[in-house]
């Protein structure tokens, strides 16, 4: 798996979506920001933010001690969700997600994987401007 990732083209870099400039770690993350902006413009969500908050695992002394979800999403109800775009799940990611559940049980974390992306991308790219292939 390391070999395929070494040759992959993630296209990390600065993007601007809805007047917000941010550093996307992949095309998928950039496209998900475009999707959230689309939802905000349609009034489905109130707001989205890219990587605004780090969660710490105070009891952990080594290894994964913190987690920075990709997006904080404010719903129309005012409640907050954190969305993580994960094209692949390595051991470190699995650990961080498990620790989030344990140390921050009241936080809603939604992990969107390759299956979600591949299922939704054909529809979204036809309705969202600047979708990256």
Keywords:
four-stranded mixed β-sheet, two-stranded antiparallel ribbon, disordered N terminus, 133 residues, alpha+beta, 35% helix
Structure description:
- The strands form three sheets. The chain has a four-stranded mixed β-sheet with strand order 3-6-7-8, with helices on both faces. The chain has a two-stranded antiparallel sheet with strand order 1-2.
- Strand 7 (80-86), helix 3 (91-103) and strand 8 form a beta-alpha-beta unit.
- Helices cover 35% and strands 28% of the residues.
- It has 133 residues and is of the alpha+beta class.
- Mean pLDDT is 92; it is low at 1-8.
- It is globular, with a radius of gyration of 15 Å.
Order of helices and strands: HEEHEEEEEHEH
Query: How many E-type strands?
Result: 8
Portion of residues within helices:
25-40%
What radius of gyration results from the CA coordinates?
15 Å
Terminal CA distance reads 22 Å
Topology of this structure?
Elements: H1 2-6, E1 13-17, E2 20-24, H2 27-41, E3 45-50, E4 55-56, E5 66-67, E6 71-75, E7 80-86, H3 91-103, E8 109-113, H4 114-127
Parallel strand pairs: 7-8
Antiparallel strand pairs: 1-2, 3-6, 4-5, 6-7
Summarize the structure.
The protein is of the alpha+beta class and 133 residues long. The protein has four helices and eight strands, in the order αββαβββββαβα.
